[in-house]
Every structure is written in structure tokens, then in C-alpha cells.
Amino acid sequence: MTPYLPALLGGMLLGLSAVLLLLVNGRIAGISGIVGRLLGGHQVATNMAFILGLAVGPLAYATTFGHLPVVRIATSWPMVLAAGLLVGIGTRMGSGCTSGHGIIGLARFSKRSLAATVTFLTAGIVMATIIGTLR
Question: Quick one: DSSP state of residue 135?
């Protein structure tokens, strides 16, 4: 098995779930929108099912591959919390998150999603380069 197979299968399942949510419920699979609707009390069953599906994902991985995925966070918890806060602010400013814009928005040929995705990727590359240079 190649080391890329789990990522390939995960990407395929993510794309399939996003397309099914759009076709069946007419909703975009943007995590920020789903969490926002869940917290706002809208479509609780559908949004909760999607969030639970995300939580069950690692268990499905463990069942398929015999072990949980290895996740290593190489920074402090305050930095993780600050990054999460900045991502939340960014999703509000960008009218959506990477999953909504990058998966469904691009598939729908949305110019706004293309601009958002290019911005996300460019900012990520710039920050990774800066942090990599500082280490």
C-alpha cells in the first residue's frame, strides 16, 4: 500500500459527502456554515449528523487500516487556540471556509470561491515559508 492511499481515499470520501449533501439537501458542505447553523438551532438533525460523521471518521480509519491516524501537533496549546480563533475570523471575513469554497465552490465554478481558495493557499504557503525559514 502506498503512503498516499489513505489521503486519496479520505479525499474521495470528502468529495462524495460534499456532493451528496449538495444533491440531497441543497446545502454546501462548508464546515463553518454547518457549525454556524447547528449553533443557531437550524436544521439540527442534518448538521449534527454531518458533525458526528466527522467525529466517527477516525474510527472508520482505524477499522480499515488497523490503527488510528498519527497526529502530532508541534506547537503550544495557546498557539493552537490563537490559530483557531484566526481561522474562525477568516471564515467570517471570507464568507466560508476552505471546504465550502475549495471543494464545492470550485466545483460550481464560483469566482468568489476561486478568489477565496487562491487567498487561502497563498497565505498558507507564505506562512509556511516564513515559519520554515525562522526555524
Answer: -
Q: How many Cα neighbours within 13 Å face the side chain of 54?
A: 12
Q: Taking a C-beta distance cutoff of 8 angstroms, is the pair 25, 46 a contact?
A: yes
Q: Are 51 and 37 in contact (CB under 8 A)?
A: no
pTM surpassing 0.70? no
DSSP 69: P
- CA distances (Å), origin 7, targets 52, 80, 125: 20, 23, 20
Mean pLDDT computed over 31-42: 87
Task: Report how far apart, in Å, the C-alpha atoms of 54 and of each of 34, 40, 66 are.
Answer: 12, 19, 19
Tens digits of residue pLDDT in 77-114: 999 999 889 888 888 888 888 878 888 888 888 999 99
> H or E element: which one contains 15?
helix 5-25
- Residue pair 37/111 in contact by the 8 Å Cβ criterion: no
d(CA 21, CA 15): 10
For 34, the grid coordinates are 454547518
pLDDT, average across residues 32-61: 88
Query: Is residue 29 within 8 Å of residue 103, measured between CB atoms?
Result: yes
